[in-house]
């Protein structure tokens, strides 16, 4: 991060009292962990709207650096430049309180191929009826019902009917995805 950027942020951050900055740090961390939007009302008594967005951006970036890159207290103090040392410590201490939740959230975001998540599934083994055209195949079919939760919280149902070769391909693909996610989470920690 550029030092000029931190210096510009330091003047904005220094407008807040220690108590206000600590409260805002915890609010930003909570909103990151919960994937929620933080209302600007929380900071408008201290900062202008533009300054509020700067504060949110800077605090989010500091949290990502402390948690993601393992910044020490000394590194945070050095990087935040001319900001009062007590305010730097408040920022760092606030991040430490939420460190595990932030780490989990950042890993989850980094490893998500998409933000849709499998919430539940059900399966049934079906045999084709004698009158059905598929009966001539003499092959059982697997019916899989997937309940997928979108990032918006909406649930979507996906229904699949697979023969043995398609099921094998699906299992192979899922195993490869699982290995990739495990490698990403191992590398991220």
From TrEMBL:
It comes from the Eukaryota. Residues 117-185 form the COMM domain. It holds the Pfam family COMM_domain. This is COMM domain-containing protein. It comes from Candidula unifasciata.
């Amino acid at each position: 991060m550029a030092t000029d950027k931190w210096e510009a942020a330091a003047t904005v951050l220094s407008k807040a009292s220690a108590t206000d900055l600590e409260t805002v740090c915890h609010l930003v961390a909570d909103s990151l962990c919960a994937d929620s939007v933080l209302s600007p009302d929380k900071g408008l008594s201290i900062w202008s709207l533009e300054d509020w967005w700067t504060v949110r951006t800077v605090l989010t970036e500091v949290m990502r650096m402390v948690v993601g890159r393992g910044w020490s207290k000394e590194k945070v103090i050095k990087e935040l430049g001319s900001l009062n040392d007590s305010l730097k410590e408040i920022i760092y201490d606030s991040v430490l309180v939420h460190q595990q939740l932030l780490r989990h959230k950042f890993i989850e975001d980094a490893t998500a191929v998409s933000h849709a998540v499998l919430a539940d599934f059900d399966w049934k083994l079906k045999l084709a009826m004698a009158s059905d055209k598929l009966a001539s195949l003499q092959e059982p079919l697997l019916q899989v019902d997937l309940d997928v939760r979108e990032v918006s919280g909406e649930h979507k149902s996906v229904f699949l009917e697979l023969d043995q070769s398609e099921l094998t391909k699906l299992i192979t693909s899922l195993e490869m995805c699982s290995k990739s996610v495990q490698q990403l989470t191992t590398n991220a920690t």
